[in-house]
Amino acid sequence: MKQLIFFNKAKKLVLNSCKKLKTEMISIKNSLFRITAKNLFSKLTVPNYNNSAKDGFAIKSWATKNASLKNPVYLKIIGTSSSGKKSKFHKKYDKKFSCIKIMTGAPLPKNFDSVIEKELVIKKNGFIKIIKPIKKYSNVRFKGNQLKKNEFLFPKGTRLQPQHIGILISAGINQILTYKIPTVGIITTGNEIVNIDKKPKFGQVKNSNSYVLQSLLQKYNFNFINYGLVKDNFNKIKSVVLKAIKDCDVILISGGISHGEYDLVKPVLKNVGTKPIFWEIRCRPGKPLFFGTKIFNKKKKYIFGIPGNPVANFVQFEVLIKPFLLKLSGRKDFDNKNIFFAFLTKSIKKEPQFKYFLRGKYFVKKNIFFVTPLQNQDSSILKSVVKANCLIILNEQDVELKKGNIVKILLLN
Question: What whole-number distance in Å separates Cα of residue 74 and Cα of residue 125?
């Protein structure tokens, strides 16, 4: 296994290793943001009757062809049609010069072909007065104008939004086949880290990484199990890793993945039989990133070892782990689409042969993007991510970029 591979190659290896999870049938009521696992077709015709688009009166248009101000047409009101009910009217009066009071959405009675708005007629003594011809099918919504039975609705791979759910319910679909949501295990290692309910002593920091990763997973609707903090002890780390492999589809291990004496994650992963795909990439932040797989109970498990620096956790999730998880979930649009070009407002330098994701602040002026790199790019300073609204993407061949040069930016929100 070669070390220090280029970021784009690492990303390709991660995405190519990804195999969509199995499918499951779920209630349409619980399907928000789920990914469809098959093409969807309507089971119903919607609406299943011709109906009125306005409150008014159902008429026979040909009865009004000679109507004028000097020669008005009088139509007798013989009944009412309201939503959800069959219309009742006196059939013996169902002749040329009759009409039916009708509500919006109510069925259009048989033999009537148009609706005139109530505002356009004068109602008196059980009749309405019409002073101009009414076109056939005026204010009529036809059967099937929203959906027809067996009509194609959405393709496989659609991420369901509220409007999708509304159409699917209207189409008579109560159960839907979707890809399973991956369950992601979060493990944080480090002797210097303390739980969030404890006050850190000298040389200690609170366990923010677990909850940043947890929040990112919640943001993108992934299931998660937070195994909390594990001290730098081989057997303790191994025990938690084995449990996570059993419980989860993906494991994110924060910290303990570099070259230090207490960096025990890589030896543990080797001990439990993880197949390494790569370790260390030409990227900042996040150089000592590990990715590997393990087969457990005939299921492929995916394991990421992420550097413990808070910014590396955040950045590598956004640029590498998130696209992987989206693809695993069945998303077609799994890769970052919110990438734009922007003009630098100040010059920057970087180390050659490394891809950089710098925190930046962009603004738009006359539909043109401009971006300013934040001053402190230390990967331990999470505060800089709060101030940033984008990541500035610098390629390996870039060394020095001048003010006014064009760069790619990845919007964070």
Answer: 11
Share above pLDDT 70 across residues of the chain, in percent, rounded to a whole number:
97
pLDDT at 87: 62
Could you tell me the domains of the chain? 3-22+181-328 (3.40.980.10), 24-46+150-179 (3.90.105.10), 51-141 (2.170.190.11), 339-411 (2.40.340.10)
Instruction: Summarize pLDDT for 106-148 with one digit per residue, the tens.
Output: 999 988 999 999 999 999 999 999 999 999 999 999 999 999 9
Q: Looking at residue 332, what is its pLDDT?
A: 86
Return the structure tokens found at 27.
């209630």
Residue 225: pLDDT above 70? yes
CA distances from 408 to 54, 301, 330, 337, 344 (A): 52, 33, 27, 12, 10
CA atoms within 13 A on the CB side of 104: 5
Task: Dig out the tokens for 382 from the structure.
Answer: 């999470």
What are the pLDDT digits (tens) for 163-206?
999 999 999 999 999 999 999 999 999 998 888 888 889 988 88
Question: Beta strand pairing status for 339-344 and 368-373?
Answer: parallel
Instruction: Identify whether the C-beta of residue 52 lies closer than 8 Å to the C-beta of residue 105.
Output: yes
3-state secondary structure of 348: strand
Q: Where are the alpha helices (DSSP H) in 264-374?
A: 265-271, 310-316, 322-328
**Residue-level pLDDT at 83:** 82
Q: 148: which residues sit within 8 A by CB, 6+ positions away? A: 42, 45
The tally of CA atoms less than 13 A away on the side-chain side of residue 273 is 7
HSE-up (13 A, CA, CB side) for residue 34: 22
**β partners of residue 183:** 223
**99, 57 Cβ separation under 8 angstroms:** yes
Measured CA to CA, the distance from residue 129 to residue 75 in angstroms comes to 7
Residues listed for the chain: 413
pLDDT at 91 over 70: no
Q: Which amino acid is at 401?
A: L
**Per-position DSSP letters for 339-389, written without gaps between them:** EEEEEESS-EE--TT-EEEEEEEEEEETTEEEEEE-S---TT-THHHHH-S
Residue range 257-303, pLDDT digits in tens: 988 777 899 999 999 999 999 999 999 999 999 999 999 999 999 99
Nearest alpha-carbon partner for 292 in 271, 262, 311, 318: 271
Nearest to 227, CA basis, from 261, 195, 266: 195
Q: What is the C-alpha separation between 240 and 269, in angstroms, rounded?
A: 11
Alpha carbon 266 to chain centroid distance?
33
